[in-house]
Design brief:
CATH class: Mainly Beta
Shape: globular
Strand order of the largest sheet: 3-4-7-12-15-18-21-24-27
Number of strands: 29
Number of domains: 1
CATH architecture: 3 Solenoid
Strand content: 35-45%
Largest sheet: 9 strands, parallel
Helix content: under 10%
CATH topology: Pectate Lyase C-like
Structural class: mainly beta
Radius of gyration: 18 Å
Length: about 270
């Protein structure tokens, strides 16, 4: 397949490394999205001619493409964005105070904002806001193998009954996933609005969580912020702050964890 060479990278000074590294050699197409300057009738292949919605960009994308959500892009997703293409990257541009300036949220009772089915999908530098209504699905769910979530920021409250991020499998072979440099925080404003969880990993899912923070915020979680069920997961430099508890299954190891506010790590195999 022919390669595209972006000598100056994709032109951003802040955001996911795909946007700040240069030069960039790419086999797929780059699509740009902006809620402030875009239209889904645009061409989408230039930052000055972006689409308006992630759903449209995902619909026209192919394997190994990159979807760039430009700084300030804000979108409420009312129908799941089903990511089926292998190797697709969805990355946000921009950061303020260490928090992504791209904001996505769901307004659904039984649907994800992003539902990952393809293999090798990357989600990077996006802030996911709380669901607008009580939802039985996580904001982002993945059954795709080798999913990577990095540099993201997940807010959760009582409407996020399945948490912000969920890994599950429908295959006989175990999936593998990575979460790096990501924050999960409870934004509850009272005890009754506490979220039950932030991240869930289900049976036979293998993974790595590294340099990631779970924070209970002001009012905490009603359950375990991090719930890993009979899986094989490695943890490196994970922080459980302000009482954010973790319930773990068949864990490979936990390296250099931090826990504050009486946070508990339970279920680690003897």
């Amino acid at each position: 397949m022919a390669q595209l060479v972006w000598r100056n990278g994709l032109g951003s000074s802040l955001g996911d490394p795909l946007l700040t590294d240069k030069p960039l050699l790419q086999s797929g197409t780059t699509w740009f999205v902006s809620s402030t300057t875009g239209s889904d009738s645009n061409g989408g292949e230039d930052r000055d001619d972006p689409f308006a919605t992630l759903g449209h960009a995902n619909g026209v994308s192919s394997e190994d493409d990159i979807i760039v959500l430009l700084s300030g892009h804000t979108e409420v997703i009312s129908s799941p964005v089903n990511v089926n293409n292998q190797g697709l990257s969805i990355v946000g541009e921009g950061s303020s105070g260490g928090v992504p300036t791209v904001h996505l949220s769901a307004n659904q009772a039984a649907g994800c904002a992003i539902n990952i089915n393809g293999e090798g999908v990357l989600i990077g530098n996006i802030k996911f806001l709380t669901n607008a209504q009580s939802n039985t699905k996580a904001t982002v769910e993945s059954v795709g193998r080798r999913t990577i979530v990095r540099g993201c920021y997940f807010e959760v409250t009582s409407t996020d009954t399945a948490g912000g991020l969920k890994f599950k499998t429908s295959e006989s072979d175990p999936d593998f996933w990575e979460v790096r440099d990501t924050v999960f925080i409870s934004t509850a404003t009272s005890l009754v609005t506490r979220p039950p969880k932030a991240l869930i990993a289900e049976t036979t899912v293998h993974g790595l969580i590294e340099d990631t923070v779970f924070s209970g915020g002001t009012y905490g979680f009603s359950g375990n912020a991090l719930s890993v069920s009979t899986t094989h997961v490695r943890f490196a430099r994970v922080s459980l702050l302000l009482g954010a508890d973790a319930l773990l299954g068949d864990t490979g190891y936990i390296s250099n964890p931090t826990a504050t506010g009486s946070a508990v790590i339970a279920g680690l195999d003897d």
